[in-house]
Amino acid sequence: MQATVKWVDGAMFLAESGSGHTVLMDGPPDHGGRNLAVRPMEMILMGLGGCASFDIVSILKKSRQKVTDCRVELSAERAEGTPSPFTKIHLHFVVTGQALKPSQVERAVNLSATKYCSASIMLEAAGVALSHDFEVVEFEP
C-alpha cells in the first residue's frame, strides 16, 4: 500500500492513495489552515470507522443476515499538549436490517475489534483504549 501527500499551501495538503483516489486535508485557522477540509487526525478516526464498518457488514452478510444499513458514530479523546494522540475512542454501531439477530451483530462487532480491523488493532497496540457497542434497528420499508 502506498500514498503520496503534497503540500498545497498554508496547512492544506492533497493526499493521493496508491489506488488513485485523492482527498484534501486542511488545518484550523490558528494553525495556518483555512478549515476547508478534514484534518489529518479526523482522517485517522474516519479510517477506523470505515475499516470496522467494512468488517461488520461483511461478517453479517456471510452469516446470511439481511443488513440494509450500517452506521458508526465515533467519539474520541486526545491527550493534552503536543503531541496529542488519541487516548480513548468509542465506536457505536447502528446496524439496520430485516430480522437481524443481535447475537450475530455482537459477534461481528467483536470479531472486527479483536481479529479483523487492522486500524483498530494498530491503535490498541499503540495504547489507545477502544470500546465498542451497538444497537440493532429493524428495517422499515
UniProtKB/TrEMBL annotation:
Top-level taxon of origin: Bacteria
Family matches, as InterPro entries: KH_dom-like_a/b (IPR015946), OsmC/Ohr_fam (IPR003718), OsmC/Ohrsf (IPR036102)
Protein name as catalogued: Redox protein
